[in-house]
């Protein structure tokens, strides 16, 4: 079995499998060259040969144990009918959903494939092009995180527009959450049909939900999506990332059916080993800033994380995505520390 699958099945390994969030990205010169060729970011996502190429680049350079499909969590809103553009240096811009009329313009969940068909083609290319021991990860955003972008029309530091809609027009907010949930199930299920072997659900803004809202809008949608995916694809492993969930990382795996819970940088290692890794496989949680800094602190922290999680199933990764200013050579410092003594 592939190293990643063994960890997700609950196996402890002396050297854990490793991959990095945003491992295909702007810190790599070869990514920047391919992106230049594609024109803009969305053209890169929707050109299967080029999306497969950038997925493969970090595998060639570093020999990671897993390749994550090159796409974006905002393709689901686009497939539901939102206008989406990426403004250079500013991030994503979407048409907003704040009224019943906006919501009425969205398409049904079953129609997403018309837009996302090229994404499935990327996965079919990867099925043949990746080395046999590298696991293929498909992904989507979790409904709350995707809703925060659809409601605000952009990234927001505190997700205030989404909280406002939730508090002022809960039926509309919940209808939107439901539509995203259904679309995400269709999209992820088609990714599995096209060759994804593992699914990861990114809830980047889960940490901004109150304890009560967390159960309703982070935990419950994850449970619904994971449950339906596993019903359609028995044995499918799923990684959940309720970022900045704090104490609520504990219990998240058992409550949602996720096989692995990805931890952000803020999580204490000993607490997580005791309280979370005793329930499910854990993934994480190196600070991406250390990939910018490099040097002995990067090597030391890598070994510290490996050793803290040495007693159970662990997937080595960052606590959040690698940043464009990371030095590609620093990844080797981490790999040498992880795989060496
Ligand atoms: O290598 C991989 O991890 C696979 C591809 C991937 C991308 N985005 C490519 C991307 C994945 C898994 C994502 C997830 C994603 N996208 C999340 C969840 C994870 C997280 O980081 O919290 C979110 C919130 C998004 C939405 C998004 N996409 C934003 C806010 C931005 C703009 C900010 C930025 O980093 O530029 C993007 C753009 C994006 N998605 C890039 C990449 C490689 C950069 C685009 C470029 O090349 O200019």
TrEMBL record:
Pathway entry: Porphyrin-containing compound metabolism; protoporphyrin-IX biosynthesis; coproporphyrinogen-III from 5-aminolevulinate: step 4/4
Residue ranges occupied by any Uroporphyrinogen decarboxylase (URO-D) domain in the UniProt entry: 17-26, 137-153
Gene3D superfamilies assigned: 3.20.20.210
Enzyme class: lyase
The reaction(s) this protein catalyses: uroporphyrinogen III + 4 H(+) = coproporphyrinogen III + 4 CO2
GO cellular component, one term: cytosol
Enzyme Commission (EC) number: 4.1.1.37
UniProt keyword annotation of Nuclease present: no
A molecular function GO annotation: uroporphyrinogen decarboxylase activity
Pfam families associated with the record: URO-D
NCBIfam families: hemE
Protein task: Catalyzes the decarboxylation of four acetate groups of uroporphyrinogen-III to yield coproporphyrinogen-III.
Subunit and partners: Homodimer.
HAMAP family recorded: URO_D
Record-given protein name: Uroporphyrinogen decarboxylase
């Amino acid at each position: 079995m592939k190293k990643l699958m063994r960890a997700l099945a609950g196996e402890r390994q002396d050297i854990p499998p490793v991959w990095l969030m945003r491992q295909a990205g702007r810190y790599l010169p070869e990514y920047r060259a391919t992106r230049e060729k594609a024109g803009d970011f969305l053209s890169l996502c929707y050109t299967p040969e080029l999306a497969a190429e950038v997925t493969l680049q970090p595998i060639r350079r570093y020999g990671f144990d897993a390749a994550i499909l090159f796409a974006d969590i905002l393709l689901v809103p686009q497939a539901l009918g939102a206008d989406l553009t990426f403004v250079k240096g500013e991030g994503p811009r979407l048409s907003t959903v704040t009224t019943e009329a906006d919501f009425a313009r969205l398409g049904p969940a079953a129609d997403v494939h018309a837009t996302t068909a090229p994404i499935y083609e990327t996965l079919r290319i990867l099925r043949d092009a990746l080395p046999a021991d590298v696991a293929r990860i498909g992904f989507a955003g979790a409904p709350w995180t995707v809703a925060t972008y659809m409601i605000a029309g952009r990234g927001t530091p505190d997700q205030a527009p989404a909280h406002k809609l939730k508090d002022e027009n809960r039926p509309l907010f919940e209808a939107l959450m439901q539509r995203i949930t259904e679309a995400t199930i269709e999209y992820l299920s088609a990714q599995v049909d096209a060759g994804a072997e593992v699914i990861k659900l990114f809830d980047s803004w889960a940490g901004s939900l109150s304890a009560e809202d967390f159960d309703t809008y982070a935990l419950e949608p994850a449970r619904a999506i994971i449950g339906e995916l596993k019903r359609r694809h028995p044995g499918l492993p799923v990684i959940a990332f309720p970022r900045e969930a704090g104490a609520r990382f504990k219990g998240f795996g058992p409550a949602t059916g996720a096989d692995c819970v990805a931890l952000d940088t803020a999580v204490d290692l000993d607490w997580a080993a005791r309280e979370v890794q005793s329930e499910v496989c854990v993934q994480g949680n190196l600070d991406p800033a250390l990939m910018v800094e490099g040097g002995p602190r990067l090597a030391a922290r890598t070994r510290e994380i490996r050793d803290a999680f040495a007693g159970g199933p662990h997937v080595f990764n960052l606590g959040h995505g690698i940043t464009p200013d990371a030095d590609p050579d620093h990844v080797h410092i981490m790999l040498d520390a992880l795989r060496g003594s």
